[in-house]
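[[Encoded backbone]]
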Amino acid sequence: MRNYLPYDSEGVNVTSNLGDPRFFARSGPHSLASIAAAAEGTACSRDILFRGVAPLHEAGPDQVSFLDNRRYLPALEHTRAGAVLVHPDLAEHVPKGTVPILTPSVYGSWARVAALFHPPAPLEGGIHPMASVDPTAAIHPTASIAAFVSIGARAEVGAHCCIAAGAVLGEGVTLGPDCRIGAQASISHARIGARVYICPGARIGQEGFSFAKTATGFLSIPHLGQVIIEDDVEIGANSTVDRGSSRDTRIGQGTRIDNLAQIGHNVELGRYCVIVAQVGISGSTTVEDFVQVGGQVGMAGHLTIGKGSQIGAQAGVIADVPPNSRLLGSPAQPASLFLRQVATLKRLVGKRGSSDTP
């Protein structure tokens, strides 16, 4: 039965359900000094203990919060949080009774402090008796294999990997150390590096959408490539990454792919790219390092998207993109040009609308 009291048996404020102990491991209490160290920030020298983290408007005196956006200054000025992570420029807005922890990178500090109070749950190595593991597969003894997982012949699972219920690893798939594979994800024809997180329901390594037209109908083209996923990549829930047909599909180090994205065959994503939800990248397109792609962007095939480019939501990309471009619209065009067109259209509509009748 749900506990409706504002504090649990350990005295922690639970009204916001942030870090609910039913779902998230918890550590602490932690001293102000240890929190400031985790945040890589600075704070006054006071002997205070904190028990958790919470948003500005819900935090109590034993909790840490943060401000990373000036629009929430009113919430900061009225917060009851015991300490707040804040940029030095905004320190004067922190109310009396709240300790400012000063940091030039507030959101990064918040990530580290939240992880201090809520570290990953400890991993218990072993293979569940209801998992199906081929005898030729190599499973590191520290890996955790849940119920109903299927691991094919000659697959390799590295140290401290965690494979959730119902996931499928096909023949020959390799996972480096510290990978996490979500429930009911499927992986085939893939080599995966270290510290890769593949969320529930993702599909990695299936054939891509590629066929030849013949006089008698369509003829499927064999997909003889693999999917290569480098270290520290995250792939969101229900996203798909097709294996290559004539070369490998590759996801570069540190890249983050949101939920419901489609990465076509032969695509090469560079290092530290950001691909937001519902993006579709057609086959054989190369996306260079540090590219950011907004939600629902569509890219034609066989393109090159230059390093450091930013492509706004719902853009349609049909031509190569030079490095460090800023694009909006469909078809995608330089952001400054697109915004001028929108402004001009609004003026034209406004003039006509003044004489129009409903």
Summary: The radius of gyration is 25 Å. Residues 39 and 111 are 8 Å apart (CA to CA). The longest strand covers residues 63-66. DSSP finds four helices and 39 strands in the chain.
